TrEMBL record:
<comment type="similarity">
    <text>Belongs to the GDT1 family.</text>
</comment>
<feature type="transmembrane region" description="Helical">
    <location>
        <begin position="71"/>
        <end position="89"/>
    </location>
</feature>
<keyword id="KW-0472">Membrane</keyword>
<dbReference type="GO" id="GO:0005384">
    <property type="term" value="F:manganese ion transmembrane transporter activity"/>
</dbReference>
<dbReference type="GO" id="GO:0005794">
    <property type="term" value="C:Golgi apparatus"/>
</dbReference>
<feature type="transmembrane region" description="Helical">
    <location>
        <begin position="207"/>
        <end position="225"/>
    </location>
</feature>
<protein>
    <recommendedName>
        <fullName>GDT1 family protein</fullName>
    </recommendedName>
</protein>
<feature type="transmembrane region" description="Helical">
    <location>
        <begin position="136"/>
        <end position="155"/>
    </location>
</feature>
<dbReference type="InterPro" id="IPR001727">
    <property type="entry name" value="GDT1-like"/>
</dbReference>
<keyword id="KW-1133">Transmembrane helix</keyword>
<dbReference type="GO" id="GO:0015085">
    <property type="term" value="F:calcium ion transmembrane transporter activity"/>
</dbReference>
<dbReference type="GO" id="GO:0032468">
    <property type="term" value="P:Golgi calcium ion homeostasis"/>
</dbReference>
<keyword id="KW-0812">Transmembrane</keyword>
<feature type="transmembrane region" description="Helical">
    <location>
        <begin position="40"/>
        <end position="59"/>
    </location>
</feature>
<dbReference type="GO" id="GO:0032472">
    <property type="term" value="P:Golgi calcium ion transport"/>
</dbReference>
<dbReference type="GO" id="GO:0016020">
    <property type="term" value="C:membrane"/>
</dbReference>
<dbReference type="Pfam" id="PF01169">
    <property type="entry name" value="GDT1"/>
</dbReference>
């Protein structure tokens, strides 16, 4: 494995873990896993995050072909500094740390009430028997899988981590960025699904945001120094 792949992998892995822990999609996966089969929630969330990571890396890989590599490098450097300052601001802002968890839980509760209003409790046993008789492929494309996929995919769209992945793939080896991103997403989502709300509520968003901010600024400094050296 080449040095560029390893460098892209490690940067992407560190960035993804610190960006995703305590994120809205992290909380959504934790809460959904308490209400639905974990394997369906995990597979739906992971599928969405893998698709998003690959799409973001492709955009980042294509960017130097549309704009000069020099300009994409400068833009990436500015993005790293911008995201670093953004994360530090979030870390020191006065908003409560549980606010994002409460917001996600309230939204999912509203969705749950809307769903239960359309169904009867009498058919629960029959539904479970039908689910067990379904082929595995059919189960993975159940409403629960699609719900986990759509919530995660659209929750990540335009998010800081997606834009950072695009910038990283434009500056580093895209293959390494994809591998690191998928590994980081898998670690965070698995932790959210297995740990549930109890784990999510114990995470200090301030510490995570502070760590992420420092990491982004380090990436920005490294990117700036590589520009000066060249």
């Amino acid at each position: 494995m080449s040095l560029s792949v390893v460098q892209g992998f490690t940067k992407s892995l560190a960035m993804t873990v610190l960006s995703e822990i305590g994120d809205k999609t992290f909380f959504a996966a934790a809460i959904l896993a308490m209400r639905h089969p974990r394997r369906l929630v995990l597979s739906g969330c992971l599928a969405a995050l893998i698709v998003m990571t690959i799409l973001s890396a492709l955009v980042g890989w294509a960017a130097p072909n549309l704009i000069s590599r020099k300009w994409t490098h400068h833009i990436t450097t500015l993005l790293f500094f911008g995201f670093g300052l953004w994360s530090l601001w979030e870390a020191f802002s006065e908003e409560g740390e549980a606010e994002e968890l409460a917001e996600v839980e309230a939204k999912l509760n509203a969705d749950l009430k809307a769903d239960t209003g359309k169904s009867k409790d009498n058919g629960k046993i029959d539904d479970e028997l039908k689910k067990q008789q379904r082929p595995i492929l059919t189960q993975f494309f159940s409403p629960i899988f699609l719900k986990a996929f759509s919530i995660t995919f659209f929750g990540e769209w335009g998010d800081k981590s997606q834009l950072a992945t695009i910038g990283l793939a434009a500056d580093e080896n895209p293959f390494g960025v994809v591998l690191g991103g998928i590994m980081g997403q898998a670690l965070c989502t698995t932790a959210a699904v297995l740990g549930g709300k109890s784990l999510a509520s114990q995470i200090s968003e301030r510490i995570v945001a502070l760590s992420g901010g420092v990491l982004f600024i380090i990436f920005g400094i490294q990117s700036f120094l590589s520009t000066v050296e060249s």
